[in-house]
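Q: Hi! First time asking for a complex rather than a single chain. Here are the components, and I think there are two in total. Is that enough to go on?
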Amino acid sequence: MRIPKARGELSEALAAVLHDGATTALPADVDATDETDRQLSLWTLYELSYRGFDDVDDELEWQPELLTLRRTLERRFEAELREAFAPPEPAEPFADALFALIEGFDGASVASFVQRDATAEQTLELLRYRTIYHLKEADPTAWVVPRLTTGPKAALMELQYDEYGCGDPNRLHSHLFVRGLEATGLRSEYGAYIDDVPVEVLAQNNAMSLFGLHRRLRGAALGHLAAFEATSSLPSRRMAQGLERLGLPAEMIAYYEEHVEADAVHEQLAVRTICGALVSDEPAQAGEVAFGALACLGLEDRFARRMLADWSAET
Amino acid sequence: MTEPIEFDHPDVVLCPGGPLLLRGDHVVEDADGTPHRTTRPVSAVCRCGKSADQPWCDGTHKVLPDKLRP
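A: Yes, that's all I need. Here is the structure of the assembled complex.
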């Protein structure tokens, strides 16, 4: 993957710095630029810690001026998330309350639209946007493992082992999506569609990296995981039915069918054994778990509303 | 915080209002007598009877009224 195309003065200055390593070009005031520019810049900085860029020196991952910029962008983003997704007071029993919080969130659904109404072109657009996360599925949560005590650590690995195909690369969830993309005629290289995605997708991905990369945010990372898994089985069934309706390839349908069954397990593990064990060991994390869950649901709702508005304008 | 030396790690877990979790490699016979081997470290067996993916859970219990949930 190469550095994404700039979408404003900040991402343009960042691209220049990443190319030649001279940090003097970075603007001092990031608030002067718009959200898309800030989210793309933050996404680019995070990628230095995942797979990097073919045209960027690996040394720059830990370059102090770039870390300063990342921290500035992160502080602002986290403050926005906390303002938008303030959790309710933690209730008992914890697992039931977390399931109720997730089930009670009435968000917009792109899967329901794909199931019944979407055109093939709209569905392919959605799949291109989903590549940004699905091609590194489960990776942001992997950062959390060493920050946990024994109970939640073992519980998280029980789930992650399945995400990573139980050691079989053919069954790795992100690889199942590669197979689906190839069969569908879409590009399967990591980050291939980053220049096309709307800001809502960048924000979703940045929230996962923010939560995953900060030990302080481990509760939010696991709450995000729980909400993601608990809103996956039924929508994945709808996606599979929509793809079948449109005659899309079996490999892509198989990706979603795998998630119907896997995530019916994962939601129980994530809510009961992972978040449950975390909160049992660290009761002060209960509110952070709920914050992470609401951030997951709220950012997906924002993405879905954006897509449904774009698509209804087309008809 | 002091961590315990022994942790509970049951082979079978009944989830309130949801599936039965089964840890490890097993063969589950469905209501029609067809055997299904588990394929993942933990499997969720349907308890509400409404899953379209028998004998496995597909999350359908969540859209049932409370009195129909296991």
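A: Chain B has one domain: 12-63. Let me know if you'd like any chain examined more closely.
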